[in-house]
Here is the input.
Amino acid sequence: MPLLSYEDLSVLLPGMARPVLDGVSLSVAAGEAVALVGESGSGKSVTARAALGLLPPGATTAGQVTVDGCALIGADPATVRAVRTGKASMIFQDPRAAINPVRRIGDFLTEALRLVDGRGRAEAEARALDLLAAVGLPDPPRHLRQYPHQLSGGMLQRVMIAGALTADPRLLLCDEPTTALDVTTQAEIMAVLRALQQDRGLGLLLITHDLDLAAAGCDRIYVMYAGRIVETATAAELLATPRHPYTAGLLGSSPPLHGAPERLTPIPGVPMGLLESAPGCAFAARCRFARPGLCDQSPPELAPVGERLVACHLADSILSEVDR
Amino acid sequence: MSALSPTAPRSPARGPLTWLRRLGGGALLKVCVLLLALFVLVALLAPWLAPQDPTFGDFASTLAGPSAGHWLGTDKGGHDTFSALIEGTRTSLVGPLAVVVFCTVLGIAVGLFSAWRGGWIDTVLGRVLDILFAFPALLLAILAVALFGKGLTAPVLAMAVAYTPYTARLVRGLAAQEKVRPYVAAYQVQGHSAVFVALRRLLPTIMPTVLAQSTVNFGYALLDLAALSFLGLGVQPPTPDWGAMINQGQAAVLDGQPLSAIVPAVAVVLVVVAFNVVGEHLGDRLAGRES
Here is the structure.
C-alpha cells in the first residue's frame, strides 16, 4: 500500500471547458521521492493540494486520493485534519506569502504544536530549535524571535521546511519549493529537502516545472499535460529516452548543463487553457508526430511501454525515433 | 548581518507628545485628535468638572447670559449651560460608543462568516445586508422608539442594526481578499481550525481598516442620536444631553439668548467633524500602506 495514492482523480471546476485534473493516477511509497512535472496551469498544484483536502470551493471530483490509508475525497473534517496534523504537510512556493508576515518565526513554527497538538511552549520551542538547526539555519534561537521580513527568501524557505516537519509527517508535498528563489539557493534548498527526506524516510512529492531539478532530486517522475499524466518512468530513464513527444519537447527546449550550447528547439504553440478542450490527445495540436484521424479523435490511455507508462497513440510506432 | 538586526526606526526626539508626531498628518488632524482626547477626558471626569448640578433649575436667573455664576448662561429652566454641556458629554458619547461597539462586533461576525463560508450563504447574507441598507438609521431608531418607548436603549440597538451592514460589507470584502492568500492555506495545512484561522489570524490583519470605518461611524451615530434627542425621542430631560439641550434651547433662541442652544450644537459639530477627520486619516494611511 503506497503512502500517497491517487486513483483516477478528476477535478472539475465550475465554468471550465475541461477538467483541471482528468483521471490522474499516481503513487508515492514511503521513503520515495517522486516528482510531478508540468507547465503552469497543467494541474500539478491542484494535484498536490488535493492530498491535503485543499481543493478550490465548488470543485466536483471523481476518483480518490489516499494518504496513509485515509481517503480524502468526500472525507469529514476530522479525517482531513488528521491527515494535515500527523500524516502530510506542504511546502508552498513563495515563503513570503505563505508565512504570516505579522507574526514571529517562532510563532509560525510552534503554533501547530501548541494550539493543535496541545503541547507546552517549552517543548514546542525545543522542537522548533532542533528543526531550524536541521534545515541548516545558522542561529536558531535568534531566528525564533525574528519576523519573516528579516530573513532572506532562501532562509525563509528553510523555515517553511522546518514548519512542515514540526508535526512529524510521513509525507511531504512540495509545491514548486524553489521557484521563488535564485538558482544557487535552489540547489541548497533541494539538498536540504533531499537530505531530510532520506534521513527521515519521508515520502516526497515534488511539484515542479523543471525537469532537471526533478531528475536531480527524485527517483521517479510523472509528466503532466493539461490535467493528465502523459508519461511516467524512473528519473534516469525519462531523461535518457523520453517516449512521449511532450517529454521529448520539454527536454529539447532546455539548455544542456554541460557541453556546447546548441540551438534549442521550442515546442510550438501554447499549453491548452482551461477554457479549451479537445476530443483527442490534448497535445496533438502542438505535436510534430500527430496523425490526423488518430490523435485528434480520442484521448490516449496511459499504457505500458517497456518499463514505463506513456499516454500516446504513437508510443509504440514512432517514438523510438524521438531524439533530443 | 545588519539588515537582520531587529531595530525599529525611532524618532530622535522623544517627549510626551511623541505619539502625536508619529500619527503623521497635518495640524488639522492633530487638533482633532487632541479635541477628541479632551472630550473623552471631560466625559470621564464630568461629575467632578461640572461646577453646578445641571439638573438644578435656578429660577432666580433663567435665560441669563454669561456671568461669573453661569459661565455660559442658563436656559429657560435656569439650568447652567456649562454644567449641562459637561455632564451631557457623557450621555452624548456613550450612546454612539454603544452603537459602534455593537455594530462593529456584529458586522465582523456577519462579514467574516459570509466571506469564510462563501457560496450560497454569502449570497443570502449579502442580500439581507442590501435590505438593511435600504433603511435609514434614523427611521429605524424612530421605529424602535415607537415600539419600545423613549430613552437611549431602543434607539441605540436599532441604530446598531442599521449601521451593521456598513461594517459587515467592509469586513466581508477584506476577508474575501485575505482568505485566498497562501498564508491562510498554510495555517489550514498546519491543522488549525477554521475558527482559529479566521478569528485569530485573518481578523487581526484586517482590523485596522475596520477600526477606521468604525471611527467614521462614531461621528454619524453621534449625529443621529443627537437628532433623535432633539426630536424629543432620545435621552429625556432632565438627563443632560446635547441633542436634548438644543431642543430645550429652541425657545431661548427666539427670546434672544441663543447660547443654551448654540453651545451644545457647536459641541456636536466639533466632535462629529473631529471623528470624521481622524477616521478619514486612518483610512488614507491604511490605503497608502497597502498600495
Q: What stands out?
A: Residues 26-51+70-268 of chain B form a domain with the MetI-like fold fold (CATH 1.10.3720.10). Chain B is about 70% helix and 0% strand.
